[in-house]
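Progress report, Aim 2. The chain analyzed during this reporting quarter is listed below.
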Amino acid sequence: MVTTTSEASRYRSRFSNGTHTAYSDTTPDKGGGSRGFRPHELLEAALGSCMNMHLRIYADNHGIRLGEVTTTVTVDRKDPSQAAFQYSIAFSEALSPEQTAKLFQVALTCPVHNTLSRQIVFQPAGRGKT
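Predicted structure tokens for the chain:
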């Protein structure tokens, strides 16, 4: 569970899972101060981080040396009927074409990708103080 709390700065928010804390904000053209991740960047980070970790776990379990793994994710929201997550994955170690193909398949089985691929519903858990 992550809890988000507004900060004194106009739109900046602090979010925490109880152990780690980070900040979100919006851009100056929208009234923010750019003093944290934009909300859509957090979606991109969730998918990119999950793919990255999932690949490394798979590689460790199958004796594949990856070196550094870099995942880049951008969400394209131009089409109002869909959100397109565009991604790239790079490995610092040379891999065979078969290993690369398999790893790209594995990336698409990460838990966040699986979650984002499902029908999404929003359910209020309760109301705070009014």
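Helices lie at 39-61, 97-107, 111-116. Residues 39-61 form the longest helix (23 residues). These observations will guide the mutagenesis work planned for the next reporting period.
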